[in-house]
Amino acid sequence: MRNWFAIKLPVLILVLWALLSVVAQYLPLQPDHIQLERVLAGPGRGTVLGFDDLGRSIADRMIVGARTSFLVSVWVVSLSLLFGTLLGTFTAYHGGWWDRLAVLTVDIFLAFPGILLAIALAGLLGPGIGNVVIALTVVGWVGYARLSRAQVLSLMHREHVQAAEALGTSRWRIIRKHLLPMMAAPLIIEATFGIAAVVIAEAGLSFLGLGVQPPGASWGAMIRDGTRYMLVAPHMVMAPGIAILAVVLAVNLLGDRLRDRLDTRMMTETRDRP
To answer: For the domain bounded by 59-212+219-272, which CATH number is listed?
Structure first.
């Protein structure tokens, strides 16, 4: 039972989330279809999650919202991971004033609360899903840069790296062949937890009206619309709220499990190394 809740259920939730995101555009959905006779109708016969204040199907809008949060998470985490890893790796390996400048830049970004900086950037750029991706990427690359820099400073003194340098191997080849493969595990774990953070951040920005604009569907925007009718139609808030809770909890559980497995493997390899 413990294994089910720790691994299988989170995997099932994330697979369903990704699957709905991929096939949403091919399903016969009507997320913007207004049915006045079903305004604020709750779950019942013929409807799974009920209807909102305009008579739109909450189930259809939930699926479209799943696609929105999935795409934003993938784009933000991918761009943040790529930029942060490249910056942290190259500046740490080259050292000198490049490294000092990178550390100063990271410290400046860390001086601001991440979500507040994202709100400010999204407000300056204007509402829209593309601007949300830009704002969250500008905030999210910092963690990957710090982690990759710390990993490089730890790995660059290993024997195989110093041997490659002594043989005249180019810096780019050393980074690509010797450093990045050994940094992959902690970066993957960091990216896993980053997905959960982006899901919450995207929902928060959409809740504030800085994300997906009407009539587009987003879990955060659906919660915002449902707060006005919580006493008469709590299903408008409960459905997207439970979806966010399930996805974030599943990602965090898998991230914890992945971290434990990779830590155990690294400890075993270190112990067996002569």
So the answer is: 1.10.3720.10
